[in-house]
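REQUEST
  id: r-88c1
  op: predict_structure
  target: Betaine/proline/choline family ABC transporter ATP-binding protein
  payload:
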Amino acid sequence: MTSGTTESGREITGASIVLDGVEKHFRGQSEPAVAELDLEIAAGEVVAFVGPSGCGKTTTLKMINRLIEPTSGRILIDGRDVTGVNPDKLRQSIGYVIQSGGLFPHWTVERNVGAIPRILGWDKARIAERTEYLLELVGLDPAEYAHRLPKDMSGGQQQRVGVARALAADPPVLLMDEPFGAVDPITRVRLQDSLIEIHKELGKTIVVVTHDFEEATKLGDRVLILSKGGHIEQFATPAEILATPANEFVSEFIGSGATLAQLSLTRVKDTEYDPVTTARVGESSAAVVARARAQGHRWVVVVDSTGVPIAWPSLDEIGATDEVAGFVDNRLPVVAPSSTLHDALDQMLAASQGGALVAVSGGPLLGWVRIGTIIEVIRGQLGDAHADEASYVEFAEAEAENGGAS
Ligand SMILES: Nc1ncnc2c1ncn2[C@@H]1O[C@H](COP(=O)(O)OP(=O)(O)OP(=O)(O)O)[C@@H](O)[C@H]1O
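RESPONSE
  id: r-88c1
  status: 200
  body:
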């Protein structure tokens, strides 16, 4: 395992992955699914594989943990050739997450997460401690979820358990095959944000296969664009790919998604937040209104006992009852600092609000970001070179004027 720190000072616990002339020729097929692929992924890096259907993304991913045996070539993890290693042993050291979660439906969450540590012979106390840590890491309260069955959880929650399970034995590498492909768009954004947080915390090497170029630009430090036969068209940072597509294939592939992907290059944390007045359920409404007025705020954010925002009422709405009500607004636009500007705009427009609250998942409320702030950033990004995209800005501005919390 490689040690050291990233630019942000985080410890790298991931391992490098090298594919050296790797090829997969399925029996009965005239062409190889993946031909002579050379690829180097640095320790602690997140790499997203994208490309048209059938280009060999999944085959390449599954060769890394040898769920698919390469026909030829070498695969090195942390410098060690793993093509001759016992595949079961190898898979215990590489986390793997698939689209549907792949959980055992009749096992509790706790049992699912502890599956590999049990095979590795960990004692019960160590497994219990690790499970609790991991459930918290993926944003699930252990007290509430450890004893649940996957069938009694939402798709997004099951995916969180899938990630916890994949990380159970602290593998240096995490492979993910369309991990968020089967959940609704809002859950998808939250799961992406959680993955970014987890990566920041753990510094693993992550390889993620996705159909969605925008998701690739959001998650990947670098994006690998493949064409048929696992041919590399471009392997570069999202910004590089958008600024200088390597060839016509890449330009066409990113084509209509390019504008949205531009918005994905800037994160909410790169913009300015405005402060909010918060209120607790049951507090005196008059005191809350006075506090908000003193700050010049026309809205307050009601938070639950753990500090998680639950509603964003106006002062008139707050003043309608003596005490702050515990109403939970299920459409509340909340984004994480790692969310992209595109995620933030989506949330605002879906909620018909002129802003979105910024909160670390399950953590403190940091403030709110105005649609106007985002529009300014987009304007700067698009510049004059993309005058036609101005219509998107106008659309967003019109939405902002039509109402919401700005
Ligand atoms: N088990 C198999 N036997 C024979 N051919 C296979 C097998 N698995 C994949 N292939 C073929 O290999 C090629 C690459 O498939 P692969 O699943 O890796 O593509 P992909 O890029 O992940 O596609 P998608 O985005 O549709 O999942 C395809 O032509 C596919 O039909």
